[in-house]
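I have a small job for you when you get a moment. Would you make up a two-line entry for one protein for me to read? No commentary is needed, just the two lines. Write everything out right here, beneath this request.
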Amino acid sequence: MNAWSLENWYPSRFGADDVIGALNLVTPQTVKAAFGLVKKGVIYDLSFVMEQDMPIPSFHGSFFANTQYSLENGAEWHHLAMDRMTNGFSAQNLRLAISDHSGTHIDQLNHVGEQQADGDFLLYNGIRNKDVISTFGTSKLGIETMPPMIARGVLIDVAGHKGVDMLPPGYAIQPEELDAVLAAQGTVVKEGDVVLVHTGWARNWRQPKKMMEGEPGLGKACAEWAIGKNIICWGLDQFATDPVPYETPGEALPMHIAMLTKAGIRLMENVNMAPIVDEKVYEFMVIAAPLKIRGATGSPIRLIALV
């Protein structure tokens, strides 16, 4: 039997029945080690606020939220549903209609597939998409199968190392650049790490049109780098991990295919790295937990770094 590789990618390197990918590398021992990084009790919130005008690719559809009941008209509902209130009680809420890839979010292993010679699309571990897809997402690999992610996190500040506020659209970061930045920071990537790469592109967050015009990202050679380091997840401060325009014309989002479909390494996007970049926090404990939405291909997350 041939050894696992990006060319010979299924069964998964974690077994033919595996559904959690590189999160198999998260163990009680690695979680305890991550907690050991917390010395000051300082919390950094790395998620953007989800709101009506935030940038989001048209493929995912716009974010929509509106007041469903106010305290004023909610009182009538409560009177009808719960008998007449005598203590002045009422409640109000929002109704949401959003993509599972809204705001700061994580991509799940069923988000991307690779088309084969026979026309079928295969998901992680060689699962045939048409065997699992339905009106309600997929019956395998849905985000509800992803465990909470608690791990050591590492920041690689590529933009800062190059002395720029942000890298230009289409800039493809290469493995040797990652290594150079890590050496300059005095930081080492270890097995089981979450790696956050700062491109500076999130400076455009308040300018949705500019944010969506393109982006710097990880060159496709970074796939083998990630596999060699045995990381569990990337995080980027832009919307699609890969550079846009594409590194190689016609090759759309190759890091998505290599990481999600083949290696089982997840991708977090629209990460707000400003809090840790500003304070040069290069090593930390990271916590990310997706919503348990059956069949979903990703989820908004509240991404937290602690030191």
